[in-house]
Structures are given as C-alpha cells and as structure tokens.
Write a structure and sequence with these properties.
Number of strands: 14
Strand content: 5-15%
CATH architecture of the largest domain: 3-Layer(aba) Sandwich
CATH class of the largest domain: Alpha Beta
Bound molecules: uridine-5'-diphosphate-xylopyranose
Shape: elongated
Helix content: 40-55%
Oligomer: single chain
Length: about 425
C-alpha cells in the first residue's frame, strides 16, 4: 500500500517509520523543511529507541519526506498526525489539524478511487463530526469517494516503536465497511505475526476509547496516590498494599506505583481535554476532576515532607530527575516543574540534575544551577527531592555523604534507604 502521513512530530514520525518497516510505501509530509531534510537523511528528529534504525533502513527507498501534498492523491490512505495543543481552559486547539484535514481533502478532491483519511491525533468525539469530517469533505468538494476514519494510538514515549510493533489492541474507527477494510489492509502485515485484539467501531467511539484509556490510567495512579497518602498517615507501606491489590486480575499489577504523580504529553492534556469537552455538554466529571487535583497536590506534599526536616528558606536543595519519566528527555508536564517552582517560591536555591533533560529544563528555569552528575548536585546540599525514577538513582550511596544535611525525599521510591540519611517517601 501507499500511505501518506501528514505531520512528522513524535507520533507521525514513529508511525511513518513503522509503516515503512511493515513493507508499505510511505510519504511523510511536514511543513518544516528541516524535519523533512532530517528524515530524508535517515535521521530521527526525536529521541526514541529504535526509531533512527528504522529511518536509516527505509529513508530513500520505502520512506520519503516532503513538504508538498502531491503524493496524497496517489496514496491509498492518509494519516493525520498533527498536534492538538491545549487551550488555557484545557480544551484542545484543533486549528492546525482542521487546516491539514481540509488540505488533504483538497488534494484528493478529484480522485475516482476511494481514499481514507484517518485521524491519528487525539481528538474529542464531537469534534470529528463537527469539525474534522466537515473539513475533509469541504476540501474534497463532497467527493463521495473520500471517507474519514479514526485510529487512535497508544504509544508510550521511550517504547513507541516496540509498542507499535506489539500492540495489545488496534482500534479501527470507520463509518463504512470499506473504511474498516482499508484499516485492516494497513495493519495486515503486523497482524500476520502478532496477535492483537482488533476493535472495529465508529470514529467517535474510537476517539472516546483513546480518552477513556488515558483518563482511566491517570485516574488509577491518582487513586493509588490518594490511598498511598492515607497509608503514609497510618505509617504503612503503600507499595506492600498495592502489590497485594494488584494480584487481583480485576485491578492488575500495572500502574500501581504511587509517588509524585503523572506527567508527560498525554495524561495531563487528555484528562483536561475530556473534562473540558464534558463541561461543554454541561456535565461535571467529578472523579476526573479529583484525579487532576490529587495529581496537582503531590508535588506540594513532597515538599511538606522536606520542610519537616529542612527550613527551605535559603537552603540548597538538589532536585534529582527532570524528565517526566525515565528514558526520555521530555519535560512536558514533568512533576519536576511544580517541585522547582514551589522550592523557589519558598526561597530555596535549587540545584538540578538529570542524565538527559537538562537543556530543555534550562530553557524553562534559566536561573537555577544545573550539574552534570547527581553527586555534584548533592554535594553541600541541605536536602534532596527525587522526582524521576532513573535507574542510576537506585545505586546512589556515598554520594549522600557530601550533603550538608542528608535529607532525601523520594518521589518515586527509587533511592536505597541507608544509615545516616533521613529518608522520606511521599506515600510510604
Ligand atoms: C501514556 C500512555 O501510557 C500511552 O498509552 C499514551 O498513548 C500516551 O500517554 P506516556 O505519556 O509515554 O504514555 O507515559 P507512561 O509510561 O504512561 O507514564 C505517564 C506518567 O505516569 C509518568 O509521569 C509516570 O512517571 C507516571 N506513572 C506511571 C506513575 O506515577 N505511576 C505508575 O504506576 C505508572
């Protein structure tokens, strides 16, 4: 098959490279010439394990990048993987995606064969009917050969390529049988070797499945954090409690790690977007709002434990871990941001360390000190707040000896407790 992918961000680049690896001819389209050039050179514009290998293998043969929409009418399917940034009220800004949907429609307006335009971006169910389908059909001049589908992604940063190649489920949202068949044809090479559940549904339900998935996981962590906070008050080990409840198949052992909360580009954005979309219909989703509130409270709670042992005013505090999770340099909605803000508000001098995410955080907080090792950050500090569960923090040992006051508040239960340091977990 020939597939065009509009948008070469995190999702677009990953799926374009993976489709090429499945044996399809892929044209990646982006307005950014630098990204196009990078892709054509077989290099990755983002840090993602395994991605560069795929780009290197397929650029110049099965994968081509361009700024023009010329390849769209020659392809069988177009995937729209355009960002939908958050507005101030949590709702999503569909402007760029709507423009791309219309431009795609225009490109295929004269087509005599069927063409499926698939929304890959995460969008609210009503926006498919009210904004995106109309944009495609308007562009295509109501050409009846053009269909619109929805195929949400469940890729995690840091394992996006492997998640693509080994999905638990594929969700095909289409409003016609041929639309569903075409999505099957796209993923057929993957399904030949891998047994994934295929969910066939309409585009709106497919969009809701994506939000429900992320809202459920984010709320699961917030519930675990709420219960963990109670455990802490009772002086009980939250991890022991969670390990036990995870044995129940109905709960499952995953996503039960309590701590400083969830961040990243998806959970915060998606939970806020579905809350805003529900409010648009005059429905207040009380549990989801509470999930956000618990998540917002955890960083402040972390610092309450720190200030039990250290007067933060004028103190030198080491923040270990800046990325929103390990194995990525992404700091979007990282819990390190509210931790640093709160520390600064309370008059502390922050010295921060992360193995890969210093440069992005330097743009956000140019005024704080950054170090190239955890040991340097700890040296002479009056306390440490551990925000990301990088493996290397599990082996910290004599590095703590050089702290002026060896107080460690661990937001991820990664540091080894040891004699001579005052250790506090957030929920244990
Ligand atoms: C998530 C979804 O998992 C993925 O399916 C979706 O497509 C995009 O959003 P990602 O944002 O890459 O993926 O990260 P994920 O590994 O899910 O972690 C999200 C956040 O939750 C991180 O900040 C992580 O530290 C936190 N988390 C995760 C916990 O606090 N506890 C846990 O038990 C699990």
């Amino acid at each position: 098959m020939h597939i065009t992918v509009i948008g070469s961000g995190y999702v677009g680049t990953t799926i374009a490279a993976c489709f090429a690896d499945l044996g399809h001819d892929v044209t990646a389209i982006d307005i950014d010439e630098e990204i196009v050039e990078t892709l054509n050179d077989g290099r990755s514009p983002i840090t993602e394990p395994g991605l560069e290998n795929l780009l290197e293998a397929h650029a110049g043969n099965r994968l081509e990048a361009t700024t023009a929409y010329d390849a769209v009418p020659e392809s069988d399917v177009t995937f729209l993987a355009i960002g939908t940034p958050s507005n101030d009220d949590g709702s999503i800004d569909l402007g760029a995606l709507e423009a791309a949907a219309e431009a795609t429609g225009e490109a295929v307006a004269d087509k005599d064969e069927r063409h499926l335009v698939v929304i890959k971006s995460t969008v609210t169910p009503p926006s498919i009917e009210t904004v995106l389908e109309p944009a495609v059909h308007r562009g295509a001049d109501e050409n009846e050969n053009i269909g619109v589908g929805m195929n949400p992604e469940f890729l995690r940063e840091g394992s996006a390529v492997s998640d693509f190649m080994h999905p638990d489920k594929l969700v095909f949202g289409a409003s016609s049988e041929w639309g569903t068949d075409r999505l099957h044809a796209v993923f057929e090479p993957l399904l030949e070797d891998h047994d994934a559940h295929v969910v066939e549904t309409d585009p709106q339900t497919a969009a809701m499945i994506k939000y429900a998935n992320n809202a459920f996981l984010a709320s699961k962590i917030s519930l675990v954090n709420d219960l963990g906070n109670i455990c802490k008050e009772f002086d009980l080990d939250a991890y022991e409690v969670m390990d036990a409840i995870g044995i129940d198949d109905r709960i499952s052992e995953q996503f039960l790690r309590s701590g400083v909360g969830w961040g990243g580009s998806c959970f915060p954005k998606d939970v806020n977007a579905i809350i805003a979309a529900a409010q648009d219909e005059d429905y207040e989703p009380a549990l989801l709002e509470a999930a956000v509130e618990v998540n917002e409270r955890q960083p402040a709670r972390m610092l309450e434990f720190l200030s039990k042992h250290v007067d933060l005013e004028g103190a030198r505090i080491a923040v270990l871990g800046l990325a929103f999770k390990p194995k990525t340099d992404d700091i979007r909605n990282s819990r390190a941001i509210p931790v640093i803000e709160e520390l600064r508000d309370q008059g502390a001098d922050v010295v921060a360390y992360d193995p890969v995410a210093i440069e992005p955080m330097r743009d956000r907080f140019p005024e704080i000190e950054y170090t190239t090792t955890a040991a340097e950050a700890l040296d002479g500090s009056d306390g440490a707040a551990v925000v990301t569960d990088w493996d290397e923090f599990a082996t910290l040992d004599e590095e703590f000896d050089s702290m002026a006051e060896p107080v460690v508040v661990d937001g991820r239960r990664i540091v080894q407790r040891q004699d001579g340091i005052t250790y506090e977990g957030i929920t244990w």
